[in-house]
Amino acid sequence: MIRIFDEPFKLNEMKKAYLSSFIVLAAMLTVQAQTHQKTIGKANMPLEIVQQEPTMAKSVTDLSDGFETYSDFSLLFSPWTLTDVDGSETYGITEVDFLNQYSPMAYIIFNPSATTPPQTDASILPHSGSKFAASFAATTPPNNDWLISPPLAAGTNTSVSFWVKSYTSQYGLERYKVGISTTNTDP
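Below the sequence we write its predicted structure tokens.
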């Protein structure tokens, strides 16, 4: 079981602060061996997709993204900030081909049905929809890849919730870091 926080994360002190969630994955792509949803704070607020221009500095109140609107196998997907600190080429999937496979990357918009051959095993399918943001293991470890949300306005009922999966437990389950910044998008 992946445990990110043992108790709800409280943001009462940060009513006017900006919230950016930082999620780093430290192994193979983010698909199934163990599946968990983790909510930080109160999860009773309805969420909807918010689209922004990448240069927009304004914060958003609600953000929900299933990654369906982005191009298959894209390495950039605004308004998210992707930071590949390790700069390493990445591993792929044996006997499967897709655009940007093996490229240095932080995350990729992965569509299992658009690979050659298409991937249909439940262990690689997204939680919902047809796509997800995946991080592949660096060929020169350790991984240091960040998926950073656009600025979010934090309040007393703020929560961060996301789904994670490990493709396999063969190399150990993925580890995640979730952080909050009130200043910038530097990991």
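Residues 27-170 form one domain.
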